[in-house]
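Onboarding guide, step 5: your first structure request.
Type a short instruction followed by the sequence, for example:

Predict the 3D structure of this protein.
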Amino acid sequence: MSEASPSVAALGGWLRERRDAGDDGKTLLLGFIASDACFAVAAGLRGERDHPGFERFARYLLHRRFACDGHVLMLPALHGDAPVYLVHGCVAAQALAFMVDAHGHRCRWPGAALPLRVDDHDRQPTPALLRRDMDARFAALAVPPPSSL
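The system replies with structure tokens like these:
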């Protein structure tokens, strides 16, 4: 996507909304069907030890519950000493990979690999009890998705 893409601007605006709503520092996940956001979650992860569980949760939401064909993952990080969000995903067959600083400005991707992988399909069946737990977790973490990109 180009620097002036309305989709990038809309994502930046939604990120500012989520920060203003108290979700600053949380991992944000959006699921898409074509260019329509069908769900969003804001999860407070305590670090890398929470990544495997969040990956499985995200894959369940993206591929099993909502059958999404795109997603955007916004992961809080530090760039030097500055707080940033790493924005990564694919929406309407367009890849996204950039960084957003604390002021909402788009920056170049730092080139590092993203520590979370949510785009791979989870090939293992999800047991019913685990699905119920993940559905309850989704209800607790759901936030309004952006109205349009």
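Each response can be followed by summary notes, for example: The beta strands are 27-33, 36-43, 70-79, 82-91, 94-101, 106-107.
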